[in-house]
């Protein structure tokens, strides 16, 4: 198996799309997603398509393990390479292309694909309670800061947001939420 490590997602941190995933929503969805991992159906594509349905002809990976390290969701995924790539280096599917990029040292990452709405609070977009994770896909530019794939899990440590480090930072977004709740009372 072609197994690699990855940073998948972070809660409480604004991503490149200007969204923040609240802790309780992201943890709830990851807990539900664990059943897909157990069923070996936690598959994702190479690149984000515009639709929410996973296209089996574009499958590139299967997530085999997810766990939390502080605010950061990390784990392992298997790049589903073909026998032609494994034996002869021939690229004949999306997974082969992803494996080839990684073997050449190209930095690629993962990005979640989900359904739901966002709410705006004090100019910040929060993923709402109706959010559902569809999958994670392999992408060239992940929206979650530091959501990269690596052969070595130690290389990913620099991208992990620990609970301890977040406690030392000003809790601006929590304060904004409390202020917004106070305004709406």
Share of helix, binned: 25-40%
Uncertain regions spanning at least 5 consecutive residues: 164-173
Spatial gap, N to C terminus? 55 Å
What's the helix-strand series?
EEHEEEHHEEEEEHH
Largest sheet: 5 strands, antiparallel
Mean pLDDT: 90
> Within the largest sheet, what's the order of strands?
3-4-5-1-10
- Helix count, per DSSP? 5
3D shape: globular
How does the helix and strand content classify structurally?
alpha+beta
Summarize the structure in words:
The protein is of the alpha+beta class. The protein contains 5 helices and 10 strands; from the N terminus they run ββαβββααβββββαα. A 5-stranded antiparallel beta sheet has the order 3-4-5-1-10. Strand 4 (59-69) and strand 5 form a beta hairpin. It starts with a strand and ends with a helix.
Could you list some keywords that capture this structure?
185 residues; five-stranded antiparallel sheet; three-stranded mixed sheet
Give the gist of this structure.
This protein is an alpha+beta fold and 185 residues long. The chain has helices spanning 23-38, 83-88, 94-103, 163-168, 172-184, and strands spanning 2-10, 19-20, 43-45, 59-69, 72-79, 109-115, 118-121, 124-127, 132-139, 149-150.
């Amino acid at each position: 198996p072609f197994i690699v490590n990855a940073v998948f997602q972070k809660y409480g941190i604004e991503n490149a799309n200007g969204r923040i995933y609240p802790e309780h929503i992201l943890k709830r969805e990851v807990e539900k997603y664990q059943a897909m991992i157990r069923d070996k159906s936690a598959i994702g594509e190479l690149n984000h398509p515009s639709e929410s349905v996973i296209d089996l002809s574009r499958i590139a990976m299967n997530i085999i393990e997810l766990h939390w390290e502080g605010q950061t969701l990390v784990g392992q995924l298997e790049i589903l390479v073909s026998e032609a790539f494994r034996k002869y280096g021939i690229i004949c599917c999306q997974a082969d292309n992803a494996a080839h990029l990684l073997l050449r040292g190209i930095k690629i990452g993962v990005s979640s694909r989900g359904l739901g709405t966002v709410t705006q609070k004090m100019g910040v977009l929060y993923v709402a309670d109706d959010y559902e994770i569809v999958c994670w896909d392999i992408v060239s530019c992940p929206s979650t800061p530091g959501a990269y794939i690596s052969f070595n899990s130690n290389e990913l440590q620099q991208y992990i947001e620990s609970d301890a480090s977040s406690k030392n930072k000003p809790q601006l977004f929590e304060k904004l939420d409390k202020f917004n709740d106070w305004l709406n009372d």
